[in-house]
Structure to design on (616 residues):
C-alpha cells in the first residue's frame, strides 16, 4: 500500500483511495449476517417450540372434568381406554422409569467411572486411543438394536440364569440401559479427570503417592463435580431412552417389587399407545401430558448437570 | 531413618502395601474397561452369526415378501437414506450458521447464555418427546401429514444441537491469530469467516455431521408417528420409490416391526436387518473417526 504517512497532527484523510466493494456485496453481507443471527437463536426457538406444541396438545385434558392432575401423578391405575371408568394414573410408569434407570445407574456408574479412571490415568497413548474409539462406537449403536438384543439375547439369558418366568423385565432393561449410558458416563468423566490441573498430579507424585493413591485421594475429590455431572447425564439418558426399554422391559403397568418384574416406563408408554389413541381424544392428550412431564424431568436433570459443570469451571 | 542413604529407597512394608494396592486397582479398573468393551465384540459377533443365513446382496436389494416374513430390506434402506439426507440438509446449514454465530459473533451476554442453555436442553430432550413435537407441529399444525417431510424435520431438530456443539468445537480450535491476521488486512467479519475460519475448520465440521448421519439413521421413536410405516410396496432395486409427501419405510422401524409385530418371521431375517442397520451405522462412524484421525495428523498448526 502506498498510503502516504500522515503529516503532523493531521488525522489520516478519508480521501485515501480504496477499492470499493460493490453495494450489493455489502448489502448481501448484511443480509447474510442477519441469517446467521436468526440461526443463532434457532435453538431457543426450537426448545420453546417443543414445549409449546407438546403442551398445546396436552392442555385440553387439564380442563376435562374426568381428569385430575393429582390423580395423574399419584395413582397407579392406568386404564385410558376403559368404557366405564377411565383412569389416568402414571405412578406405575414413573416407578418403572426410575427402577430401570436406577438399576442401570447401579451397574453403569461404577463401571463407567472405573473405565474413565483407567483411560485417563492408567494406560498409555495407543491403548487409550483405541479404547476411546471403541467406546465411541458403542455409543453409536442405535437404541432399537439394543432393544432387539434385550428382546432376543438378554431375555433368554435371564430366563436361563434366574429362572424368571419372563425374560423382559427390570433387570433386562437395566442391563441394556447400563450398556447404553456407559459411553456417555465414560467420556464426560474422562473430560472431568483431564480438567484437573497437572500440578495436582505432580504434587501428589512428588510426595511419593502411587497412581492409585493419586486417583483416590487427589483426582476423585478434585473432579467431584464433573463426575457428578457425568452421572446426571447418564440418568437423563436413561430417563429419556425409548425404544430399548420399550422392547426390553416387558410392558406390564405395575409397580415393580423385584428386578424380575416386568414394568413399563413413561417413554415406552407413549411409544406403545400413541399409535392407537385417536388425535384429540383424552387418551391422546394424556399421552402428550406425559410428554410434558418427561420434558420437564429431563430439562431439570440437564439443567442441574450444566450448573454442576459450570461450578467446576468457576473454581 | 538410618545414616545409610540407600535405606531410604528400600521397600518397607508400607511401600509394599501401597504397591500391591496399586497393582490391584490397576487390575480391577482395567477389567472394568474390558467389561465395557466386551459387549461390542460379543454383540457384533453374535448378531453376525445369527444373521449369516440371510446376509446376501439380494437381501439388501429385495423388498420384503410373504407378509414381511421373508425377502429383503430395500425399501427400508432407501427410506432411511431419504430421511438421513433430508434431515441433515435442513439441520447442517442451520447448525453450522448457529455455531458461527455463537463462536464468531455472540458477545458474552444473557442472550448467549440463553442460547447455550437451549442447546444443552435441546440435546437432552428425550427422542419420544421429539416425536410428540413432530406430530403436533409438523403433522397437524403445519399440515404436512404423516410424510417424509415431517419425519425428516423432526429428525433435523433432534440432530441440530449436536451439530451446533461439534461445529462450535471445530471453529474454536482455529487459532485466534488467524482471524486477527485477516482482520488486519481489512477483511470484514464475514469475509474472515468465509476465507479463513471455515476452510480451516471444515474437517471438524464434516466429522461432526457424519457422526449425526448414524444418529439420524438409528433413531426410531421420532419417525414412528411422523412418517415411517410398517410396509410399503416397492419393487426390487427401485432407486427413487418415495415422493416427499409419502410415508416411507425405515430400517430402524423395520427392525422394530419385525422383532415385535410380525409373527413367524424367518429366524435370521430380523438379525440380518439388525446387522444391516448396525453395520451401516458403525461403518459411517468408523469413517468419521478415521477422517478425524487423518486430518488431525495432517493439521498445519
Amino acid at each position: 500500500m502506498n498510503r502516504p504517512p500522515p503529516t503532523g497532527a493531521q488525522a489520516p484523510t478519508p480521501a485515501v483511495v480504496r477499492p470499493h466493494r460493490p453495494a450489493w456485496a455489502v448489502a448481501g453481507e448484511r443480509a447474510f449476517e442477519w441469517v446467521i443471527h436468526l440461526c443463532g437463536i434457532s435453538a431457543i426457538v426450537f426448545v420453546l417450540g417443543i414445549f409449546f406444541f407438546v403442551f398445546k396438545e396436552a392442555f385440553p385434558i387439564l380442563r376435562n372434568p374426568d381428569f385430575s392432575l393429582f390423580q395423574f401423578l399419584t395413582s397407579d391405575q392406568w386404564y385410558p381406554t376403559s368404557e366405564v371408568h377411565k383412569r389416568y394414573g402414571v405412578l406405575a410408569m414413573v416407578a418403572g422409569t426410575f427402577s430401570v434407570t436406577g438399576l442401570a445407574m447401579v451397574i453403569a456408574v461404577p463401571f463407567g467411572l472405573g473405565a474413565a479412571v483407567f483411560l485417563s490415568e492408567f494406560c498409555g497413548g495407543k491403548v487409550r486411543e483405541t479404547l476411546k474409539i471403541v467406546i465411541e462406537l458403542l455409543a453409536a449403536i442405535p437404541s432399537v438394536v439394543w432393544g432387539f438384543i434385550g428382546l432376543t439375547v438378554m431375555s433368554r439369558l435371564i430366563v436361563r440364569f434366574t429362572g424368571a418366568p419372563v425374560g423382559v423385565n427390570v433387570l433386562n432393561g437395566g442391563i441394556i440401559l447400563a450398556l447404553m449410558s456407559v459411553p456417555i458416563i465414560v467420556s464426560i468423566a474422562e473430560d472431568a479427570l483431564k480438567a484437573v490441573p497437572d500440578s495436582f498430579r505432580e504434587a501428589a507424585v512428588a510426595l511419593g503417592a502411587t497412581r492409585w493413591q493419586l486417583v483416590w485421594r487427589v483426582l476423585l475429590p478434585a473432579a467431584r463435580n464433573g463426575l457428578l455431572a457425568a452421572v446426571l447425564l447418564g440418568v437423563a439418558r436413561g430417563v429419556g431412552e425409548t425404544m430399548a426399554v420399550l422392547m426390553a422391559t416387558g410392558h406390564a403397568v405395575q409397580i415393580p417389587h423385584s428386578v424380575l418384574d416386568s414394568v413399563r416406563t413413561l417413554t415406552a408408554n407413549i411409544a406403545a399407545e400413541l399409535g392407537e389413541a385417536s388425535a384429540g381424544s383424552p387418551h391422546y392428550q394424556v399421552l402428550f401430558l406425559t410428554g410434558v412431564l418427561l420434558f420437564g424431568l429431563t430439562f431439570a436433570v440437564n439443567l442441574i448437570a450444566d450448573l454442576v459443570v459450570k461450578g467446576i469451571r468457576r473454581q | 531413618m538410618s545414616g545409610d542413604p540407600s535405606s531410604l529407597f528400600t521397600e518397607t512394608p508400607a511401600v509394599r502395601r501401597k504397591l500391591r494396592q496399586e497393582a490391584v486397582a490397576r487390575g480391577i479398573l482395567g477389567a472394568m474397561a474390558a467389561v465395557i468393551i466386551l459387549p461390542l465384540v460379543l454383540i457384533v459377533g453374535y448378531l453376525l452369526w445369527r444373521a449369516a443365513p440371510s446376509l446376501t446382496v439380494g437381501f439388501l436389494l429385495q423388498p420384503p415378501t410373504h407378509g414381511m416374513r421373508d425377502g429383503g430390506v430395500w425399501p427400508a434402506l432407501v427410506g432411511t437414506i431419504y430421511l438421513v439426507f433430508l434431515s441433515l440438509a435442513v439441520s447442517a446449514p442451520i447448525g453450522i450458521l448457529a455455531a458461527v454465530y455463537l463462536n464468531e459473533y455472540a458477545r458474552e451476554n444473557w442472550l448467549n447464555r440463553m442460547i447455550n442453555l437451549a442447546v444443552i436442553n435441546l440435546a437432552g430432550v428425550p427422542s419420544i418427546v421429539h416425536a410428540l413435537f413432530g406430530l403436533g407441529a409438523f403433522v397437524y399444525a403445519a399440515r404436512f401429514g404423516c410424510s417424509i417431510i415431517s419425519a425428516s424435520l423432526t429428525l433435523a431438530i433432534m440432530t441440530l444441537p449436536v451439530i451446533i456443539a461439534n461445529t462450535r468445537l471445530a471453529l474454536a480450535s482455529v487459532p485466534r491469530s488467524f482471524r486477527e491476521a485477516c482482520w488486519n488486512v481489512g477483511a470484514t467479519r464475514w469475509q474472515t469467516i468465509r476465507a479463513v475460519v471455515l476452510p480451516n475448520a471444515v474437517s471438524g465440521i464434516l466429522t461432526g455431521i457424519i457422526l449425526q448421519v448414524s444418529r439420524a439413521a438409528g433413531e426410531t421413536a421420532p419417525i414412528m408417528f411422523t412418517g415411517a410405516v410398517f410396509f410399503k410396496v416397492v419393487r426390487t432395486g427401485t432407486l427413487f420409490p418415495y415422493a416427499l409427501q409419502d410415508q416411507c419405510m425405515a430400517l430402524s422401524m423395520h427392525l422394530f416391526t419385525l422383532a415385535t409385530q410380525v409373527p413367524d418371521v424367518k429366524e435370521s431375517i430380523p438379525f440380518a436387518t439388525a446387522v444391516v442397520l448396525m453395520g451401516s451405522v458403525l461403518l459411517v462412524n468408523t469413517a468419521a473417526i478415521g477422517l478425524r484421525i487423518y486430518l488431525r495428523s495432517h493439521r498445519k498448526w
Q: What stands out?
A: The longest strand of chain B covers residues 64-65. Strands of chain B lie at 64-65, 70-71. DSSP finds eleven helices and two strands in chain B.
